[in-house]
Amino acid sequence: MASGESQQAQQNWRYCGGQIKLWREETGVSRQALADEAGYDYEYVKSMECGRRRPTLRLLQVADQMCGARGKLLVGQEFLKPDPFPARSQEYMAIEAEAITCSGTSRC
Asked: Which chain regions cross the lipid bilayer (predicted)?
């Protein structure tokens, strides 16, 4: 996983990739066939299915079509949008928000 990605993003990648793999295996579509149809390398698709890489919209679209998922795989794209702030910024943003609300008061 790329540095700066949140733990939630990594879980979302694993879940969406796992769904692609489940649908693919259930319908008898090989990983190679999916990779060829999507225009990706076999190992790249494997990385997306295992959650090491963020599944692309292209892979979701092709897998949905090849596996006859009728949109069930496409809904995963909502969970693959990047976080507004990288994980390393989350703590800073929380501290900054508290500092802004406490500035000028004696309650902090």
From this structure: none
Check if the beta carbon of residue 69 is closer than 8 Å to that of residue 23: yes
- Domain-embedded: residue 72: yes
**Amino acid identity, residue 39?**
G
Q: What is the largest CA-CA distance in the chain?
A: 66
- The end-to-end CA distance of the chain, in Å, is 38
How many domains in the chain? Answer: 1
- The token pair at 50 is 């295992």
Q: Establish if 45 belongs to a structural domain.
A: yes
